[in-house]
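Quick note —
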Amino acid sequence: MSRSPAERDPYWVELLHTQVRLIQGRYRTRIIEAGSGPALFLLHGTGGHAENYALNIAALAEHFHVVAMDFLWHGRSQTEGFDPEVIPPLVDQVCDVMDQLGIERAAFEGQSMGGWVAMQLALRHPEKVRALVLTTTMGYAPEDGAIPGYVEPDWASNLPSSLEVLRNPSFEAVRTRMARILANPARLTDEAIRVRQALYQQPALAAVQQLFIAEYLAGDTIRRHTVTDAMARRITPPTLVYWGDRNRTPPALGERLARQVQNGRFHCAADTGHWAQYESAGEHNRVVADFLRGL
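Predicted structure written out below.
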């Protein structure tokens, strides 16, 4: 299904033909850009950065103009101005990057929190969204009882360890934090860990990430922007919901979401956890490219 860590190309072999730069509009945003054709934005999850898509950018850039970006308060993007609403500022940041690049309409893949942002973008600015890929998305809450036996995980239980890794970003602490989002932690490369560690060692980023993760895992303000079934039914662009069979929230949640949106389909990768675009990269790249090219 996927190559072992030893067989995988280093990030900068994967990203050799990309352009990495900071752009300044309403916000300061770092992007990794490659390819030509229809625009495709790649939106990472909480605590992550554009390199979360290092194994996907080059493959997808064979068909699309790919833009992977660091969200506000993540990676090398702007650290100042934290807003506990979280989701609306991130939606506005995506629109800002589109404006700076002269892109009026695009497809969007969002993984985890990135999927939450992508769904809200489709609800708030449907004219900007050609298609959605929602990869192990967060931010969706089905109606009570809609999925027999489903109970939302206690995300707040992750808060103490998530704060500790930001206060003490040792290699082992970062490895432990990242390993829990994989079905098989052995697939996590030292390079992936060291990139995340280097970012968390930036004092300004570590400080704002502590505010961010406290709100994301245990706050009430961000929950105002949860996508309900009623809201999902208003999402009109073609939507691929991409899941891992060993994601912390079960495939049944992704299947439910794919049925709620107006034009949805579902794909579940075997032996794959939450970081599905990384762990089943080859399958992911093929399925996503086929979906978007077939529109």
